[in-house]
Structures are given as C-alpha cells and as structure tokens.
Amino acid sequence: MSFEIDIEKRLGDAQVTLTLNAGEGATVLFGPSGIGKSSVLNMIAGLLRPDRGRIAVDGDTLFGDGIDVPPERRRAGYVFQDARLFPHMRVRANLLYGAGREHDAFEEQIGFLGIGHLLDRWPRTLSGGEAQRVAIGRALLSHPRFLLLDEPLSSLDRARREEVLVAIEHVRDVLKLPILMVTHDPAEAERIGTRVVRM
Of 63, 74, 78, 120, which is least packed with CB atoms within 10 Å of its CB? Predict the structure, then answer.
C-alpha cells in the first residue's frame, strides 16, 4: 500500500505543508506540539479539508482533482490521543461498533491486544492502557486500509505505554497494516517508525 500526500492548510497564523510518499510499515510524523501533525491526520481522515493538494491511497484519490471522499468511505482506522470509547457501551459493544456487525471471530482477530477479559467492563473502569488497546481493537475491527494514530501514548504511564507499543508493533509487523502515527517523543518515533518525517 502506498500513500501520496501533498497538502497545504493555513491554521490561524501557521501554515501546515506536507509532501510525503510512503509505503508499508509505519510512517511517524515527529516534531514538537502545535506544528500541525494532528491536523495532517485529520486531513487524511477527511475530518479537516486541506486548502489545496492531493491525498491518495494506492492510487485512489481521497482528496484533490475535484474529489473529496467522505470520512466514512476513506476506510481509515483512527485512534486518538484519548481513547474516545462510548461511555454508555461496555467494551464488547464498543468493539462491535467498530466491526459494524456481530460476528464470532472478533475475539480471535484481536486476541493479541489482551483485552478478552475486559469485554463486560464499562469504559470508565479501564486503565488508560486498557482503553487505548480497546480503541485500537475497535479501529482494526472496522476493516481499515490503514491506521492513523494520534499521540496514542502521550497520556500513559511507562507500564501502560509499553503495552500499547507492543500492540502497535504487532499491527505493523504481523498484521502488516500501514500506520501513520504522530508523536513528539523521539524514542517512540525511533521504535515504531519504519520512516520518520520531521515536521
């Protein structure tokens, strides 16, 4: 899978510009807070419209040349800095929401996340690491073409961070799902990134 990104967006007084050609593995957008890394992910997901440019995945244009594919048709799995689980749904229902339908194999598909024992819990009872692993599971069960990770480790302590890092490595190395990840942490960028783009 390949990404072609050539976008510009003015955000207040700042200008966000990114040109990127990336393939399989994990591409990490690295740099200090406030320079537009998360805005780039939002543009790729279709949640924010670039001022100009082109976004394509495997040659399919998502934005540009008069095309602006709606977010729900871009097939992007998105995991935010905070897990954003539905508080009125137990973990199982949150996961099945991502799957879009009932099926028996979902526990098997995301077994590597180690969340099987959490299925009957409410989101408010989860640790930060547990919630992020559920959020990754929900994103994966939506059958995405690629995964967007926006600072998924920034609010976690060291032990919880390691749990989520191992899950991300599994997605990258075993599931072979292309990842675009944002971080301001150089150690995370080095560990996860097949390629690191400094912004």
Answer: 120
**Residue ranges for the chain with pLDDT beneath 70:** 98, 100-105
pLDDT of residue 157: 81
Place of tokens 């990114």: 18
Radius of gyration of the chain (CA): 16
d(CA 134, CA 172): 17
**Max CA distance (Å), the chain:** 50
Q: Each residue of 147-160: b (16+ CB within 10 Å) or e?
A: bbbbbbbeebeeeb
Looking at residue 2, what is its pLDDT? 83
DSSP per-residue letters across 135-153: HHHHHHHT--SEEEEESTT
Instruction: Please state whether the predicted TM-score (pTM) of the whole model is above 0.85.
Output: yes
How far apart CA 26 and CA 177 sit, in angstroms, is 9
Count Cβ atoms within 10 A of the Cβ of residue 74 and give its class: 0-12 exposed, 13-18 middle, 19 or more buried. buried
